[in-house]
């Protein structure tokens, strides 16, 4: 085995993964800086804000958590809200089952911890296109985004007090634009439009449900229920392509250069 070549391949893949994160820099840093500013505005210290980003690393649920933290809300309600928002990460890992299946659990767990929205989107897109996606490449992408998120949180926490109202500069639009960009990246997939339409309408209905007396619904359940509605729609619209389709897909997965450790040359 050529150890030098193995190390070179690993480092090269890591760099390639880091390069994939660069286009997201313009979105991740302002978004995390906004979180840092909002956290300070809700009574957290800069240390608290950065520590929360380091441990939770989940943009939307961090915004919800700090917003509830500034109100008279019990801790269990905050935890339940974060769980509801982060349920989509369960769906992410399920969707990437063919990618993660070959790995041992000791390798899967740290990778799952870094499986945030853009990491899922890029991983899913690359594997669907049959492009190589090794563990070092995944880590290069995910750890770069993690570092960007911490940097932005710190910058926002130490300078956020300079902006009294983020809405004045439309900074509150960063989060919906960020998610919209991810959704639009899948627009070429079959049944994308009806799936997104049903998911969006269901999410809106659940969001405004408390105004019609359904107080057990509303935020943050609109995200989870909307996602489930989209999944059900996609399943109902999916069309089987013959009895041999399952075997064909299994062969495709076996041949696909999915998430595998970098190979060493002998």
Structural class: mainly alpha
Q: H/E order of the elements?
A: HHHHHHHHHHHHH
Strand content: under 5%
Taking all Cα atoms into account, the compactness measure Rg is: 20 Å
Report the principal-axis shape: globular
The overall strand count is: 0
Mean pLDDT across the residues is 76
The end-to-end distance, rounded to whole angstroms, is 4 Å
Poorly predicted regions are 1-6, 242-266
How much helicity do the residues have? 55-70%
Number of helices: 13
**Main sheet summary:** none
Structure description:
Residues 1-6 and 242-266 have low confidence and may be disordered. By secondary structure, the protein is mainly alpha-helical. The chain contains 13 helices and no strands. 70% of the residues lie in helices and 0% in strands. The longest helix has 25 residues, at 135-159. It has helices spanning 3-21, 25-41, 46-56, 59-69, 75-95, 97-100, 105-113, 117-128, 135-159, 174-184, 192-208, 221-237, 245-255.
Write the layout of secondary structure elements.
Blueprint: H1 3-21, H2 25-41, H3 46-56, H4 59-69, H5 75-95, H6 97-100, H7 105-113, H8 117-128, H9 135-159, H10 174-184, H11 192-208, H12 221-237, H13 245-255
Helix pairs in contact: 1-9, 2-3, 2-4, 2-9, 3-9, 4-5, 5-12, 11-12
Summarize the structure.
With 266 residues, the chain is an all-alpha fold.
